TrEMBL record:
Its EC number is 3.1.3.16. This is Protein phosphatase. PROSITE patterns: PPM_2 (PS51746). It comes from the Eukaryota. Belongs to the PP2C family. It catalyses: O-phospho-L-seryl-[protein] + H2O = L-seryl-[protein] + phosphate; O-phospho-L-threonyl-[protein] + H2O = L-threonyl-[protein] + phosphate.
């Protein structure tokens, strides 16, 4: 579906819940992430954000206003009319830019150690907006943005993402197809997933005696799956065309963007 955004920015928000730890404390882990995202949306019209258009500041305000108990990884991206995508990410959510059949930009995860990502939290020991990876990317007409939780990127390779995006008639169909393929791979114990490959590279594998028999650690990763797909339809007079990536200073100006967007969740 094509949506003409007349606001000064558009926000993609992707949350991964840390369900296990909070379930042990009898806490509904969905409440924190939902309130954090609701606050993010509410603060979009904040006067200071209208001037700076800074996703890190948006995350700061949303986190400070969130009273629910819990934690979550988060990525916020603000897309401007000039084609500048500004990103603030905490944890292992991902975002990729696909241009002309290739991944030209990726956000990489922040982890304390393997499979233990940074998280925005209600507790003082958690991370804050100051821990976010912050950057900006200059987009072009026709670029596709694929963002999601680690349940997506742990179970789908880049080439699979590119194929689905290129073969889908629209972003709505692409988001649904990506979520479904990630779900399918996540429960496939014979699939050598990006997650299992990364685990082996970090020293996790089957016992040595199984290795002697030719076995190795494989399989998908069952997890919450969130997918957001958007395609840049028009860019208004960008100052710099191309795929330049730079550190975000929070003082660039912009107006709006026409994009197509869709979100699909698999639990």
């Amino acid at each position: 579906m094509l949506v003409e955004y007349l606001l000064l920015q558009m926000v993609f928000q992707v949350i991964l819940l840390s369900t296990d730890r909070w379930a042990e404390k009898d806490v509904n882990p969905a409440l924190f992430s939902r309130e954090l995202m609701r606050n993010s949306s509410n603060f979009l019209n904040d006067e200071e954000l209208q001037v700076n258009r800074d996703p890190q500041s948006l995350l700061m305000k949303a986190h400070a206003a969130t009273s629910s108990i819990g934690s979550a990884t988060v990525i916020i991206a603000m897309l401007e009319k000039t084609g500048t995508l500004k990103i603030a990410s905490v944890g292992d959510c991902g975002l990729k830019i696909i241009r002309k059949g290739q991944v030209m930009f990726s956000i990489y995860p922040q982890e304390h150690y393997f499979d233990c990502p940074y998280q925005i939290s209600s507790e003082a020991v958690g991370q804050t907006y100051q821990d976010a990876v912050v950057c900006s990317v200059n987009l072009m007409e026709g670029d596709t943005i694929v963002s999601g939780s680690d349940g997506l990127f742990d179970n789908i390779f880049d080439q699979e993402i590119i194929s689905i995006v290129s073969e889908s008639p629209g972003v709505d169909e692409a988001a649904k197809a990506l979520a479904e393929l990630a779900r399918k791979h996540s429960v496939d114990v014979t699939f050598d997933s990006p997650y299992s490959i990364e685990a082996r590279s970090r020293g996790f594998d089957v016992p040595w005696w199984k290795k002697l028999l030719g076995a190795k650690l494989i399989g998908g990763k069952m997890d919450d799956i969130t997918v957001v797909v958007a395609k840049v339809k028009t860019v208004a007079a960008p100052e710099d065309e191309g795929g330049d990536i730079e550190q975000q200073q929070g003082d660039e100006q912009g107006i709006a963007v026409a994009v197509a967007s869709a979100e699909q969740n698999e639990e």
